[in-house]
Amino acid sequence: MTQSFRSHPAWPGETPSSSAPLRPGDLAAPHILAPEWLLLRQGAVRGHAVVVEDGCFTAVGRVADIEARYPALQTRPLPRTLLMPGMIDTHHHLTQSFGKSLVFGEPSEIFRRIWVPLEGSLKAEHLYLSSKLAALEALRGGFTTVVDAGTRSDAGLDAIARAVSDAGIRCVLGLICNDRPGADTLDAGPILRRAAAHLGQYETNRLVTPSLAISIPEVASDAMLQHVYRMCAEAGRVFQTHANEHLVAVERSLNVCGARPIEHLAAIGALGPAALLAHATLVTPREIRLLADTGTAVAYNPVASAWKGNAVAPAETMATFGVRLGLGTDGTRSDGFRLLDYAEAAQRFAFGIGVGDSSCGAGWRWVDMATHGAAAVAGLGALTGEIAQGKRADFLLVDLDVPELAPSWDLTWELVRLANRDQIRAVVVDGQLRLWDGWPVDWDARALLRDIRAMADDTIAGAPIRKLHEAADLHRARHARAGTGARA
Predict the structure, then answer these.
(1) Is residue 374 within 8 Å of residue 90, measured between CB atoms?
(2) How far apart are CA 224 and CA 102, in angstroms?
(3) Into which CATH architecture does domain 87-361 fall?
(4) What is the pLDDT of residue 108?
(5) Which residues are listed as membrane-spanning (predicted)?
């Protein structure tokens, strides 16, 4: 009997099909998975299938060809389902999940008032729980990999590595190597020794890849920036930093260095194929040329631009001129399909409307930027990011049997503008089923939520956070009083 992977009840008047959700052991033995649609690097195709063995795609091709190659394997049809690569978040802050809505309505550079005080107060237990919460949100949103830019907590990264491993998400884990967090320059020796040790860790961890980070260029000496970039380049890892995100940071760099942040990084040899710059929203044509010529990658964070930024990165222009890009959330919200929508919409509002560009990437650019393009900028292009033989089996099963996609005329565009997180039936990472209908299959997410609620109030109250914008209901009440003549 063929099996369907639909989990909703039959529509009125419809005969229910046999329905059996994937379970943790189902991918232990190889099967031929035959969805109605398969999202390959060149686009969405019908009549194709995959074989998953030992956590990898061992075969991808037409159903008849795969069945001929594997006559002993059972074919599992997945009608009205899309099998697509898991999305990759190229810029995240896993340890900030306790404070998500604290930043709403806040002006730029919230890291100084909220994130640095919050992260600095976290202990190992907080790091574990906040990172596992962020990992769960990412998986629910269709992300199978996250790139973490590093935490400012002194409690160490082991708790974060345990959290992402326990949650079952792939992670590029950054270690912050700032040597100028204040007025004085710290001794580079201990920082570089810790960095070298970090790069040598996780060899046996199939989900965690180490990375080094400088929070922003101004909190590191030129020598440290050079050392950290070179260490990453030699180790085949990614060097992360935030650059050209806010106007005040660009002006500080001009005052101190006589150059804009990206120009300064180029001058000291800290740009190149190993570099991943977060944001790059305020860039000149010369800086775009520098990024393209050096092979530097950029994490385009459109939701962050809308919520707290000074500008939108000219991502389509960058891509057109050869800059490598991936999409990132910046920890705003982990919803992959809404990120695709924002990626295109931000380009259209900021750049497309004024010049009559009605497509702004034609849909496919943003899908690519969330999958194989993102894998490349995260340093994982040989490992994941596409449905291809030899790549790790990180994928989503997406229900297409929904009103939003009926009728369907252009599936790639529809993923950008119409698809929703609630269509994701299954999330598979490294060949293992991690989530079914938004919830883990092998650990208790409800217990995690209870633990977090129990400690959240004390955690936030104990951090020296300074907000400039009050909560929405307080703001409403103040304006109501002001409207009746009360003092605003």
Answers:
(1) yes
(2) 32
(3) Alpha-Beta Barrel (3.20)
(4) 73
(5) none
